[in-house]
Write a structure and sequence with these properties.
The chain has about 350 residues and is mainly α. It is about 50% helix and about 5% strand.
Length: about 350
C-alpha cells in the first residue's frame, strides 16, 4: 500500500492506479484503514477504460474545467479549436508516442515552428493527463517536446527610445502623441506589461513612491518604486486613459506598430520595452533575483534570459589566479613580478 504524507499538511495520500487520493488522516494507522476502504470502493466503480473518448472531447473537457478560468483562456481556446477541427476525431486510446511523432512531422511539414508545435503538444499532454484521471486511458505517453531555438532578445537603447517618442508628433494628433510618448517612457522604466500598466493608471494604483500592479499574469500583485522623473509621464497616461475609455492593449499596439514602422524598427513592440527595462537593470549590475521581483516573473528561469548581459565576474576572478611570483622572461634578464590586484 503506497501511502505518503503531503508536505504542506501531513495528511496521508494513497497512490492508487496512477492517482493520488487523500485519506483525510494524519495518523498512519488510521490512514491505512481509510485506504483499504478507498480501494474497496474504487473496485466497485465501473471503469471507463476502453470507452470512446476522442481528443476533441478531451480538449473540450479540459478547457471547460481548467483553461476557461485561466488568464490565457482566449489564446488556448483559439488553439484547441483549430486542433479539434483537424484531429479531434482521433480516439485518445490511439494516441501513443508513434502517433505524436507523426503529428509533429505533419505540423512541421505545414511550416509551423517548434515553439508552436510545443504549445499544441502541451495542450494534448494536459488533456491526456486529465483523461487518465477520469479513467478513459491508462497512461499518458511520453511527449516528444521539440527543441526551440533561442531568440535574440531585442531591446531599445536610449537613442532609439528618444527617436520613437519624438516621432509621435509626426504621426498622431496632439493628445495621442503625448500619450504614446509618455507610454513609451513609462513602460521602459516600469518594465510592466501593457495590460498591467493601463490597469494601474486607470485604477490609480500608484503614488509618488510606488506603483502597484494588481492581479498580474502569475496571479500575484506586485509593487515597484517610482522616481520623480517618471511621474509626469505616468500622469499624462492616467489623464488620457481616463478621458478615452476605449484605450486598451490592442488600441495601443496598433498605434505603436505604425510608429515603429515609421522609425524603421520593424521587430520592436510594446513588449520590447519590458525587455528594455530588464536589460538595462542587468547591464547596470542588478542581480537577477531583484530583476525577477521587479518584472514579476514566477520563475528565475525566465529572468535568466538576461543573464548574458550582466557584467562579467570572470574579469575579477583572474586576479585570484595570478601567482605572486617572479616569472623569468628570457635568459639572463630579470624576472617580471606579477602582483595580485584586489
Amino acid at each position: 500500500m503506497n501511502l505518503k504524507p503531503r508536505s504542506e499538511n501531513g495528511i496521508y495520500e494513497l497512490r492508487y492506479n496512477g492517482r493520488r487520493i487523500s485519506t483525510g488522516e494524519r495518523d498512519y494507522e488510521k490512514a491505512k484503514r481509510a485506504a483499504k476502504v478507498i480501494i474497496q470502493n474504487e473496485g466497485k466503480k465501473p471503469s471507463r477504460r476502453g470507452s470512446r473518448w476522442t481528443l476533441g472531447e478531451a480538449l473540450k473537457d479540459t478547457y471547460e474545467r481548467i483553461w476557461q478560468h485561466s488568464k490565457s483562456e482566449k489564446e488556448v481556446r483559439y488553439r484547441i479549436g483549430k486542433m479539434s477541427r483537424e484531429d479531434g476525431h482521433v480516439d485518445c486510446l490511439d494516441i501513443d508516442y508513434a502517433w505524436l511523432n507523426a503529428y509533429v512531422e505533419k505540423l512541421r511539414e505545414r511550416g509551423e515552428s517548434n515553439a508552436t508545435i510545443n504549445r499544441k503538444l502541451s495542450c494534448i499532454s494536459k488533456a491526456l493527463g486529465e483523461a487518465v484521471k477520469l479513467g478513459f486511458v491508462d497512461a499518458r505517453p511520453p511527449i516528444p517536446k521539440q527543441r526551440e531555438t533561442s531568440k535574440k532578445l531585442r531591446w531599445v537603447n536610449h537613442e532609439e527610445q528618444r527617436h520613437l517618442s519624438e516621432e509621435t508628433v509626426n504621426l498622431f494628433p496632439r493628445p495621442e502623441a503625448e500619450f504614446m510618448a509618455a507610454l513609451i517612457h513609462s513602460l521602459a522604466y516600469t518594465g510592466a506589461r501593457i495590460s498591467e500598466f493601463i490597469k494601474a493608471v486607470r485604477l490609480g494604483s500608484y503614488n509618488t513612491r510606488q506603483m502597484t500592479f494588481l492581479d498580474t499574469k502569475n496571479g500575484r500583485d506586485r509593487a515597484i518604486p517610482l522616481v520623480p522623473q517618471i511621474m509626469p509621464f505616468v500622469k499624462i497616461c492616467e489623464s488620457f486613459v481616463l478621458d478615452w475609455p476605449k484605450v486598451n492593449v490592442n488600441w495601443c499596439e496598433r498605434r505603436f506598430a505604425r510608429l515603429r514602422n515609421l522609425c524603421g524598427y520593424p521587430v520592436v513592440t510594446l513588449h520590447t520595452l519590458r525587455h528594455t527595462c530588464a536589460s538595462r537593470q542587468v547591464q547596470a549590475g542588478v542581480d537577477l533575483y531583484r530583476v525577477r521581483d521587479w518584472l514579476g516573473h514566477s520563475s528565475i528561469t525566465t529572468t535568466e534570459r538576461y543573464a548574458h548581459l550582466a557584467p562579467s565576474s570572470l574579469n575579477t576572478a583572474t586576479a585570484h589566479l595570478v601567482p605572486p611570483v617572479e616569472v623569468p622572461t628570457t635568459a639572463g634578464t630579470k624576472g617580471v613580478k606579477l602582483e595580485i590586484v584586489r
